Automatic annotation (TrEMBL):
Primary localisation category: plastid
Pfam families assigned to the protein according to its UniProt record, in alphabetical order: TPT
Membrane topology annotation: Multi-pass membrane protein
Subcellular location(s) of the protein: Plastid, Chloroplast membrane
Molecular functions (GO terms): carboxylic acid transmembrane transporter activity; organophosphate ester transmembrane transporter activity
Gene Ontology process terms (BP): monocarboxylic acid transport
Keywords: Chloroplast, Membrane, Plastid, Transit peptide, Transmembrane, Transmembrane helix, Transport
Species per Swiss-Prot/TrEMBL record: Lolium multiflorum
InterPro entries for this protein: EmrE-like (IPR037185), Sugar_P_trans_dom (IPR004853), Tpt_PEP_transl (IPR004696), TPT_transporter (IPR050186)
SUPFAM superfamilies xref list: Multidrug resistance efflux transporter EmrE
Protein name, entry field: Sugar phosphate transporter domain-containing protein
Keyword set includes Signal: no
Biased composition (Low complexity): 17-37, 48-61
Domain Sugar phosphate transporter intervals: 101-387
Length: 402
């Protein structure tokens, strides 16, 4: 006990004079183990000691050196993360998430429209779609490498098994990308996107006959206006040629198989890393055809003609910007579609195509016949109907699984 008295005297000297007591000290009725069992929970001191009867003696944590966190019996004010607090500090974007989603949609559409317009302008003075396709992918790959270098995002590891899974996806991505650009280079942007509106038809056909999954009759019926509209637009389109039409159709088939292989290549990677690896593989696949098909012409007169028409600075900056816009709009599309429901996703895709067709007609002043205009509207309306029905079916399946 002398040692305990000495510790008490040293403690009183450090804390100052002891407070006056109104009565004699009374020993706590709780055992030592119970007094030591008090814990903090949400800023409140609770535990065995909190249920002790009131006595004239001060609390245990004031008679000895208080443990860390037991300096005062008064609970701290509720924090922003405390569910017991009445107020919670939230930012404007957290309070109104629709603002963020709307911004993503706007940037997705804006970048997509700018890409299509700039891409077509490049083809007007530099008609080499294989080389331009390589530039699109090259700028995107450089962007991904820089992002990995700074850790935004952190690069996901890859092995031979993942490469085998991603290679078919990247191959279809490369083929679809190149054939799309060949189509854009040879026909009007509005007409190329009208043909590409047939992509849902190829998706349904692949689902039915390749994957062996039954496609509801309502989906097949909704595709009839799409086929009819594209046929009407093709018959009287002023910029129609078979090269542009066939390449757009090959692009539809390629992107359909890309979707099929993507489902088989589901990995634990995030979408940003998956798209980065696909872009790298697609770039490697696209370089040999570009060198073989367009290389001799580029070296002989293609590059010199383009530089003579617009100058070196504009030529290089146009190629860099179109590649950057291509990568960013694809990345924004992924980020946007991850934030919304399937039905909103479907409507967003249809509206994007409407925006691109409308702005391309305005910017380039493309003359279209009445039949082409009606066919385009019918095709887009069919795509909208198909997307709506498909999204509703997917939502019903999801609800049944819950």
């Amino acid at each position: 006990m002398p040692a305990l008295d000495a510790r008490r005297r040293r403690h009183r000297r450090r804390r100052g004079p002891a407070p006056l007591r109104r009565g004699p000290a009374v020993a706590s009725p709780l055992p030592a183990a119970a007094r030591a069992g008090a814990v903090h929970d949400g800023g409140q001191l609770v535990g065995a000691a909190s249920s002790a009867p009131t006595s004239s003696s001060p609390p245990a944590c004031s008679r000895h050196r208080p443990p860390r966190g037991c300096r005062s019996a008064r609970p701290p004010p509720p924090s922003a993360s405390d569910p017991a607090g009445d107020t919670k500090s939230v930012g404007l974007l957290e309070k109104y998430p629709a603002i963020t989603t709307g911004f993503f949609f706007f940037m997705w559409y804006f970048l997509n429209v700018i890409f299509n317009i700039l891409n077509k302008k490049i083809y007007n003075y530099f008609p080499y779609p294989y080389f331009v396709s390589v530039i699109h992918l090259l700028v995107g790959v450089v962007y991904c490498l820089i992002s990995w270098a700074v850790g935004l995002p952190k690069r996901a590891p890859i092995n031979s098994t993942l490469l085998k899974l991603l290679f078919p996806v990247a191959l279809c991505h490369a083929l679809g990308h190149v054939t799309s650009n060949v189509s854009f280079a040879t026909v009007a942007v509005s007409f190329a996107h009208t043909i590409k509106a047939l992509e849902p038809f190829f998706n349904a056909a692949a689902t039915q006959f390749v994957l062996g999954q039954t496609v509801p009759l309502s989906l097949w019926l909704s595709l009839a206006p799409v086929v009819l509209g594209v046929s009407m637009a093709s018959l009287t389109e002023l910029s129609f040629n078979w090269k542009g039409f066939i390449n757009a159709m090959i692009s539809n088939i390629s992107f359909t198989y890309r979707s099929i292989y993507s489902k088989k290549a589901m990995t634990d990677m995030d979408s940003t890393n998956v798209y980065a690896y696909i872009s790298i593989i697609a770039l490697i696949v696209c370089i040999p055809p570009a060198v073989i098909i367009e290389g001799p012409q580029l070296m002989q007169y293609g590059l010199n003609d383009a530089i003579a028409k617009v100058g070196m600075t504009k030529f290089v900056s146009d190629l860099f910007l179109v590649g950057l816009f291509y990568h960013l709009y694809n990345q924004l599309a992924t980020n946007t579609l991850e934030r919304v429901a399937p039905l909103t996703h479907a409507v967003g895709n249809v509206l994007k195509r409407v925006f691109v067709i409308g702005f391309s007609i305005i910017i380039f002043g493309n003359k279209i016949t009445t039949q082409t205009g009606i066919g385009t509207v019918v095709a887009i309306a069919g795509v909208a109907t198909y997307s709506y029905i498909k999204a509703k079916i997917e939502e019903e399946k999801r609800v049944k699984l819950l």
